[in-house]
Specification:
The protein has 126 residues and is mainly β. The protein has 1 helix and 9 strands.
């Protein structure tokens, strides 16, 4: 599988997928991490929203909870089929009080992910 990594983000391999982070996020107190994996089991949050239709449909959900000094904790999970693979994109981040996460760029990233039935690995491209 191949996914385009937006400018300002860097990708690394993890078992069964790719992790994507802001460059230099380790030096901040605000979490921003994406993971793209072949989904296994039920989503930990309710996927009660939809983007697209038919075979291009993406289901997604978003939760936001009061956080600490880095802001409110936000989790966004989106899923779609890619051949036989169920792909899951998960964002864990923090936003300022009353802030929001725009799901559009993340849904576009997931929609643009390409996979091959014979592919045994995932990779990121800039």
């Amino acid at each position: 599988m191949t996914v385009a990594i937006p400018d300002g983000l860097e990708a690394g391999g993890i078992p069964g997928g790719v992790t994507i982070r802001r460059a230099g996020v380790e030096q901040t107190r605000r979490l921003y991490e994406l993971t793209l994996t072949a989904a296994g089991g039920a989503s930990p949050i309710r996927l009660d929203r939809a983007h697209g239709t038919g075979t291009d449909a993406i289901r997604y959900g978003l939760t936001q909870e009061d956080g600490g000094s880095g802001g409110d904790a936000v989790t966004l999970i989106a899923e779609r089929r890619c051949g036989m693979l169920p792909l899951r994109l998960r964002l864990d981040t923090q936003v300022e009080e009353n802030g929001t996460v725009d799901p559009a760029p993340l849904l576009a990233m997931l929609a643009g992910a390409r996979c091959s039935p014979s592919a045994g690995r995932m990779s990121g491209t800039g």
